[in-house]
Each structure stands twice: as C-alpha cells, then as structure tokens.
Write a structure and sequence with these properties.
Elements: H1 11-34, E1 37-39, E2 43-52, E3 58-63, E4 70-71, E5 76-80, H2 83-136, H3 144-197, E6 200-202, E7 207-210, E8 219-220, E9 227-241, E10 253-258, E11 261-273, E12 299-306, H4 311-314, E13 322-327
Antiparallel strand pairs: 1-13, 2-9, 3-5, 3-8, 4-7, 5-6, 7-9, 9-12, 10-11, 10-13, 11-12
C-alpha cells in the first residue's frame, strides 16, 4: 500500500518573509530617523597651524618651550644670539648722533650766512647813500677821485652782498642735506631695533607647540622651520556630496561626534559652504574636455563652527576624524 505524498514545509518561506520584512522595517525606520539630517563620514577637524621660522639668521641661545606645551599669544618661544644685532644698533645710534650734530653745525652756518647777508646789505646801503649825498651837492666841490672812490665802494659792497647771498643759499642747502642724513640715520636706528627684535621669536597666537625641531646651540638660517603652533581655534571641514547641498544652508544647527572621544556630542552650526569642489582645488584638477567622460559625484567642503564650550576641555586637534550631522530645515 503506497503512502500519500508529504506536503512541502512552508517554514523557509515564512523565515524569508520575516527577514525581508525586518529589513524593510529597519530601512523605513532609518529613513524616518535621518530624513531631517545630512551627514558624511568624510570630515575632520581643521585649525590654524602657524609655522615658526626666524626672520634673521643666528645661533639659538635658548628654547623656552617643550613639545605639546600650550602657549599664549606673544609668549617667547626661542631666543637667538643678539650680539650682532646689538652691535648694529649701537653703530646706528652713533651715526644718528653724528647726523644730529651735523644738522646743528649746518644750522649755525646758516645763521652766520644770514648775518653776513645783513652786514653786506647794510654796507651796500651805506655806499649808495654816500653816492646820493655826493650827487646832491655841487659837483665842483667833489673831485673826480672822490666820485670814483664812491663808485668803487658801491661795486665792492654789491659784490660782497651777492657773495653773502650765495653763501646763505649754500648754507640752506647744507641744512637740507644734513636733515636728510638725519632722517636716514633715524631709519637705520629703527631698522636696527627691528632686526634686534627678530632675535626674540614669539608665538603668533595661542595654541600648542608641535613638530619642534630646534635645539639650544643650533645655527639657523632665516626662514628655517623651528616648530609649529597649532592654534586653539578649531572647526570642522565636512566634505558633503553635491547632491546633499540643496538642504544645507549657513546657520543651520549641527552635531559633531569625534572618533577619538566616543560618547560625546558637540553642538555646532553651518558657518559657510565652499566656493568650489575639492577636485577644483586639487594639485592636478581633472580635465574632462578630452577622452571618455565618466560622471563622478563631487564633494564640496562645508565649514562647521563649534558652539560648545567643551571643545577647549577635550583639546580637539586638526586632522581628527569626526561625524557631523546637520539638521535640515523644512
């Protein structure tokens, strides 16, 4: 007697249906949760990194900071040997004193020249008056010799007056030249003071010391890299896909989670949107005018600024990976 055929089990189909339903439900829930947000994992902390270099060559006499030390704005970082700059300043100050003395001498000569002009002018006037008196009396009472003497006296007085005027003009030119030398000497003193100030290297902003390579006794040329100062002011640069940009606007609130600080969420907001894609500003921008073109979704940097006072507490550093989430306004 043959047995009736056994019916196929429906259990696998039920399991498959439950799995597909669970996946669909999870996707729907994920959509509901994230439909009001834009996020990307292509984001990192950014900040100002100041490269510290000497503006003059010299030997390092003292390094006053350690690796990773926090410094304040204008805090002294490195001191160079100032003796050469001090000697140059002393010479410039001596030249300035000499220039000041030369101006005084030139002004005294100018005064003397002006006095000589006055004396010559008085002598010329006296000679002219004498001539007028001789002309006013009877000509028979004055000899030809007397008239010739008066005429010669006038000519001599006129010549002396002209010479005194020329001397005065030369004295005035000497004063102008001396004053120009004094101005140049003042400039040299200011420049020498400036060069001396360059032997003391200070922090351009508050931050932490990084990549310190300088040591006491090193002889450093101008422009050599000594260290870097990473500024305290940090922000987030998030590279969003261009298809995400329609919902992102400056001022929108955001939250930031940092991979290095799990469990902590920082408040932030959208500060600005980049003026171009990352590809445009790359070292070798893509050239799409030749060959086969494959469209690739571009990414645009979006700057997010922290609104959280805890940022300084956790010491966020440039380069750390973060996950931003921007709340999209309907």
């Amino acid at each position: 007697m043959s047995q009736p055929p056994q019916s196929r089990s429906k259990k696998p189909f039920v399991i498959l249906g439950l799995v597909l339903g669970s996946v669909a439900l999870a996707g729907f829930v994920y959509y509901l949760i994230n439909r009001g947000y834009e996020t990307t994992d292509d984001a990192q902390i950014d900040g100002n990194i100041y490269q510290i270099s000497p503006r003059v060559a010299g030997q390092v006499v003292q390094v006053l900071v350690a690796d990773n030390q926090h410094v304040t704005k204008d805090q002294v970082l490195v001191k160079l040997d100032p003796r050469d700059a001090e000697a140059a300043l002393a010479k410039a100050e001596a030249d300035l004193a000499q220039a000041q003395a030369q101006v005084s001498v030139a002004q005294a000569n100018q005064g003397q020249a002006a006095a000589n002009v006055s004396v010559a002018d008085a002598a010329l006037l006296q000679a002219q008056q004498d001539d007028e008196r001789y002309r006013a009396i009877n000509q028979r009472a004055v000899s030809q010799q007397q008239r010739d003497s008066v005429t010669a006296t006038i000519r001599a007085a006129k010549a002396k007056y002209d010479a005194a005027v020329q001397q005065q003009a030369g004295a005035e030119a000497s004063v102008t030249a001396a004053q120009a030398q004094l101005t140049a000497a003042n400039v040299e003193v200011k420049n020498a003071n400036l060069q001396l100030s360059y032997t003391t290297i200070t922090a351009p902003a508050a931050g932490r010391v990084a990549m310190r390579t300088v040591r006491d006794g090193d002889v450093e040329p101008a422009g050599a890299g000594l260290m870097a100062v990473v500024g305290d002011d940090v922000w987030v640069t998030a590279n969003f896909k261009e298809t995400q940009l329609p919902g992102i606007h400056p001022g929108e609130p955001a939250t930031i989670t940092v991979d290095a600080i799990p469990g902590i969420t920082f408040k932030a907001h959208v500060d600005s949107i980049g003026a171009g894609t990352g590809a445009v500003f790359s070292l070798l921008p893509a050239q799409n005018a030749t060959g086969n073109y494959v469209k690739v979704i571009q990414r645009v940097p979006v700057k997010l600024v922290f609104d959280d006072n805890r940022v300084a507490q956790y010491g966020l550093a440039p380069g750390l990976s973060v996950l931003p989430s921007i709340t999209i306004q309907p």
